[in-house]
Amino acid sequence: MSKIDVLNIKGEKVKNITLSDSVFGIEPNDVVIYDAIRLATANSRQGTHAVKTRAEVSGGGRKPWRQKGTGRARQGSTRAPHWYHGGVVFGPKTERNYTLKMNRKERQLALKSALTYKVLDKELIVLDELKLESNKTKEMKEILSNLKVDRNVLVVVNELDDELILATRNLNNVLLLSADEINTYDVISANVLVVTEDAIKSVEEALA
Fold first, then answer.
1. HSE value, Cβ hemisphere, 13 Å, CA-based, for 14
2. Residue 138 confidence (pLDDT)
3. pLDDT in tens, 34-73
4. CA torsion sign, 32 to 25 to 120 to 17?
5. Fold of 3-45+101-207
6. Residue ranges matching CATH 3.40.1370.10 in the chain
7. Which of 49, 145, 154, 173 has its CA at a distance of 20 to 30 angstroms from the CA of residue 83?
8. Residues 80-112: pLDDT tens digits?
9. pLDDT tens across 152-176, in order?
10. Pairing of strands 174-178, 13-18
11. The pTM is what?
12. Contacts of 33 (CB under 8 A, 6+ apart)
């Protein structure tokens, strides 16, 4: 089992904790991670994109000019695909379903693999607790500065509170999640993962 330092919000070491090898120390599975990321991105697509065919665009009820004698190519409608404001050929239609599925064991394996990579790459920071005195963004920025974090960061706490939500919502490089919301896509997308000690225990219990 691997040990990791536990810091306070000032960036000072408080103690060590031992991470579960079954969650933070497995052999990472890159294929399952790829599938989980593809699942997350595909399921976020609405599938409501659509275009109009020549039968659906407005206009075009009259033949633009007579068939013969003008010297121009024959045309039957101003809404043919090659005309300006004409219909689109073979374009996407509405309500396409992009949803993918993944079984529970694969989801858990992907998340464990992502968490293991954070440990291996030294991109995991564990805090003893994350309690703010106010809901000011300035206070949260000071904490991140103390932790020497200036890139995209995923903050995971056991339970969300109003002060923490308000203090992080204006920070573009910070994503705040509760322990039961943690997922492979957000873990992989973050440069640094900041987790409270009680959130670590919740994640280990859920994935054990």
1. 14
2. 94
3. 999 999 999 998 888 899 999 999 988 889 999 999 999 9
4. positive
5. Ribosomal Protein L4; Chain: A; (3.40.1370)
6. 3-45+101-207
7. 49
8. 999 999 999 999 888 788 899 999 999 999 999
9. 999 999 999 999 999 999 999 999 9
10. unpaired
11. 0.81
12. 110, 113, 114, 184, 188
7-31 average pLDDT score: 93
DSSP per-residue codes, the chain? --EEEEE-TTS-EEEEEEPPHHHHSS---HHHHHHHHHHHHHHT---------TTTSS---S-SS-SSSSSSPP-S-TTSTTSTTPPPSS---S---------HHHHHHHHHHHHHHHHHTT-EEEES----SS--HHHHHHHHHHTT--S-EEEEESS--HHHHHHHTT-TTEEEEEGGG--HHHHHH-SEEEEEHHHHHHHHHHH-
Location of structure tokens 């923490």: 164
Q: Is pLDDT at 1 greater than 80 in this prediction?
A: no
Residue type, 40: A
Token digits of residue 127: 């805090």
